[in-house]
Specification:
The chain has 132 residues and is α+β, with helices and mostly antiparallel strands. It has a single domain (7-130), classed as Electron Transport, Fmn-binding Protein, Chain A (Pnp Oxidase, Chain A), CATH 2.30.110. It is built from 3 helices and 7 strands; from the N terminus they run αββββαββαβ. Strands 2-1-5-6-7-4-3 form a 7-stranded antiparallel sheet.
């Protein structure tokens, strides 16, 4: 049954904090990538280009984990483990939204022919620590 991200943890996703996303390579070894993070309601989302390693890993095996911590207090953090769902619609606009959040301008690195995709992390386990 899907879990939700508590309201107290959502600010970690709303602020320009980097998350680390973990996917599984074909041989089962973990692969981690820092990403810009966002949320859709109480679901964590990030954006990637189709064909990148994390995308290919998630197409093959949708299991995913992510963590994000407060830059002011590393004891305040959120960990989400679950399954990836892909959303093509609005993905190009979403990367601009994220770029504005993190860089203050539209996404400057779009490559010709690049296809963006939103990755929704449907939570199966949520672990939030509010700090010491």
């Amino acid at each position: 049954m899907p879990e939700t991200i508590p309201a107290a943890a959502q600010r970690l996703l709303d602020e320009p904090n980097f998350a680390h996303v973990v996917t599984l390579m074909a041989d089962g070894t973990p692969q981690t990538t820092p990403v810009w993070i966002d949320r859709d309601g109480d679901v964590a989302v990030f954006n990637t280009a189709k064909g990148r390693v994390k995308h290919e890993n998630l197409v093959r095996d949708p299991r995913v984990a992510l963590s994000v911590l407060s830059p002011d207090n590393p004891y305040v953090y959120l960990q989400v483990r679950g399954r990836a769902e892909f959303v093509d619609e609005g993905a190009r606009e979403h990367i601009d939204k994220l770029s504005n959040k993190y860089l203050g301008k539209a996404y400057p690195s779009l490559q010709p022919g690049e296809q963006r995709v939103i990755v929704r992390v449907v939570a199966e386990d949520v672990d939030f620590h509010g700090g010491r």
